[in-house]
Amino acid sequence: MCWGGATFVSNFVLWSEAGYFDKASVLKPLLHLWSLGIEEQFYVVWPLLLWAAWRLRVPLILVVVLVGLASFALNMMGVHDQPTATFYSPLTRGWELITGAVLASLGTDSCREAIARSPRFSAIASIFGSARARSTLSIVGLLFIGYAIFRIKETLPFPGKWALFPTIGTCLIIAAGSRAWINRVLLSSRLMIAIGLISFPLYLWHWPLLTFARSAYPEGLSWYARSGLLAASVVLATITYLYIEKPFRSGSRIRVKIFALCASMCLAAVVACIIFKGGGLASRYPEIIQRATEYDLEGYRSALRNRVCFMDIGQDATQYAEECVDKGTAPLWVLWGDSGAAAIYSGLRGLSDRTGQFRLAQFTSSSCAPLVGFSGRNTDCKANNQWTLDKIRELVPDTVILSAMWGNYDLSSLPATVKQLHSAGVRKVVLLGPTPAWKDTPSRIAFNLWSSDPLHRVPSQRLDYTKYGMGYDGLDEDGRDTRTEIAEQKLRPLAHESGAVYISIIDKMCNKDGCLMRASESSGDAFYLDIVHLTPHGADFVMKAVAPELGVQDR
Q: Is Transmembrane one of the keywords (predicted)?
């Protein structure tokens, strides 16, 4: 990420990392550099585009309008189907910067002269040139920005139409000029000027501080802690402005300063690449801590057959590959469910390969519970589930394993789902219970425990669930997430009534001492990728533990 920031391609780096199993954005200390990447890319490409249009004698106003509208149209078309690409791509965010570029152009002498020569534009300019009109523009702009602050949430598709509010609001305030009331009284106050001067270093400092604090305290930050971090950001931003930014932006020896900045960025990029290739200088830590905190996202995606037999957001069931169904003559088992099911695939795969007692088929979709008629935030769920049911009727497998994060879903349609599976000729339906969920990734919790211990003792393989478990409605006497318990309490009778077999995962992973995050004191192989998804090590442990209940004699 550091090299991405130094080379102004952070947006592309984050885009490439994004996906269902990507670590939470709030834990990426340089996440905020994505916008600087888009900004710098615009500064390079936009002048070249205008220069090319000028050389080809294409009217510049036509280029500006067409490119701006095309960028906004791409943004509107992609915000729902390709939200990650739309958020990080300069093609879909360029219209925001073009809007600012147009506004800046209107203030140049040539534009003013052109407006003065046009009676129509002169009349419009005179209307908006009055003090009252300018003040009105600035007030409307401030209202637009205020609306964006309080209305835009992470659940809304962004940028899309919602990006219009902060963009237009900012343009209106700037266009109103220094004589507008908002600009003259509010934004020209000494406090606002001081904030404006340190705004850029404040932007750079605030996010890393919050991110490191969230990593160190996964149970959450108090209001006082967040306020303290904000105050620290202001202090650091002020120091940065006074002793770094201001000296570099003023004075003599400009060429030397430019060379020093460029050399520093190149050095940062090279050092970042060396550290990245070296696995983050993992040799600083004991081997067991290194293994317990490994984060191999690409290896994990490969293990669960991401975008091959696990349909990510935006993929439909027609994209399941032929390899999702094993060939052969052994009894066929179908794994059907959401990302939690995909996470245990590698464990089932190992069980099948070791015993040879069954073949395996995998039909898993992001955020899609294996329930008849289910529809969720993934708009393809209903169609994907129907496709899976039809495929099961075609294959007539011996066993179907239903696996999901059951606590997230309404289970009312589960009996109907099991009934349809039995009607399709399935001999045995297994309901696999949910895994324990955590407040933070267990590997990060373990690392924080190790680093905060003066003696640097390696934490136990079991973590205290009463302290680190993701409690929603409280914890039971054994310290387990009651939401998981409630899901199990519902699933057990539903399984019995429907003629399905229920197998608990938390019974295999948890006891009164806590829940496993790795197999033993001497093992460093982490069981969790994030707060709930099992790694191949975790999946292998669980499948070995439940093999007898599945009727499999494991080696």
A: yes
User: Is 121 a domain residue?
Assistant: yes
What's the total number of domains in the chain? 2
Complete DSSP assignment for 365-383 = ETT--S-TT---SSTTHHH
Q: What is the dihedral of CA 121, 125, 126, 129, to 10 degrees?
A: 180
Long-range contact pairs involving 163-169 (C-beta distance under 8 Å, separation at least 24): 163/75, 163/96, 167/96, 167/99, 168/99, 168/141, 168/144, 169/140, 169/141, 169/142, 169/143, 169/144, 169/145
3-state secondary structure of 530: coil
Structural domain of 339: 296-436+487-511+530-550
pLDDT band for position 3 (50/70/90)? low
Task: State yes or no: cis peptide before 159, omega within 30 of 0.
Answer: yes
- For residue 475, what pLDDT is reported? 45
- Does residue 464 lie within any of the structural domains? no
Boundary (domain end) residue, out of 206, 225, 246? 206
Q: What rounded mean pLDDT belongs to the chain?
A: 88
The answer, yes or no, to whether residue 480 has pLDDT greater than 60, is no
CB 302 within 8 A of CB 340: no
Establish if 12 belongs to a structural domain: yes
- pTM exceeds 0.70: yes
My answer on whether 496 and 394 are in the same domain is yes
| Burial of residue 398 (number of CB atoms within 10 Å: 0-12, 13-18, 19+) | middle
Sheet holding 514-516, edge to edge: 462-463, 514-516, 510-511
pLDDT at residue 1 in the model: 58
